[in-house]
Amino acid sequence: MTLTYELSEIDSIAMQLLSKVKSKTLLFYGEMGAGKTTLIKALVKALGAEDAASSPTFSLVNEYHSDQGRIFHFDFYRIEDENEALDMGIEDYLNTESWKFIEWPQKIERLLDYPTQKLEILVENEGLRKLKFC
């Protein structure tokens, strides 16, 4: 399945995405600047988080609280190998029933033997994105 959207439609796309996924562990693929963090911010908002989401590029994980429970947002862009994810306790996070949004999951692929939903964001042009369910 593919959803095409303009950035101005991001909140609507987030709601559609949440209604269509079969896993609470979402893996976001896409080039730098494709809009992974922007979409995750909209997802966190759609889930009713108390705080606005921000990129966890340096902290590796941000945690948010909503009426639907905890939400974890991971960004593994800066890690060098899977051991860094293991050191921060990724397995404990993955074993929860919480929502988990993971940017740059290709850096930890061997650790992802859990049910997941792969999503790829493609840049069509400056304001248009294509979201592919893989």
TrEMBL record:
<comment type="similarity">
    <text>Belongs to the TsaE family.</text>
</comment>
<keyword id="KW-0547">Nucleotide-binding</keyword>
<dbReference type="GO" id="GO:0046872">
    <property type="term" value="F:metal ion binding"/>
</dbReference>
<keyword id="KW-0067">ATP-binding</keyword>
<dbReference type="Pfam" id="PF02367">
    <property type="entry name" value="TsaE"/>
</dbReference>
<dbReference type="InterPro" id="IPR003442">
    <property type="entry name" value="T6A_TsaE"/>
</dbReference>
<keyword id="KW-0819">tRNA processing</keyword>
<dbReference type="GO" id="GO:0005737">
    <property type="term" value="C:cytoplasm"/>
</dbReference>
<dbReference type="InterPro" id="IPR027417">
    <property type="entry name" value="P-loop_NTPase"/>
</dbReference>
<dbReference type="GO" id="GO:0002949">
    <property type="term" value="P:tRNA threonylcarbamoyladenosine modification"/>
</dbReference>
<dbReference type="GO" id="GO:0005524">
    <property type="term" value="F:ATP binding"/>
</dbReference>
<keyword id="KW-0460">Magnesium</keyword>
<keyword id="KW-0963">Cytoplasm</keyword>
<protein>
    <recommendedName>
        <fullName>tRNA threonylcarbamoyladenosine biosynthesis protein TsaE</fullName>
    </recommendedName>
</protein>
<keyword id="KW-0479">Metal-binding</keyword>
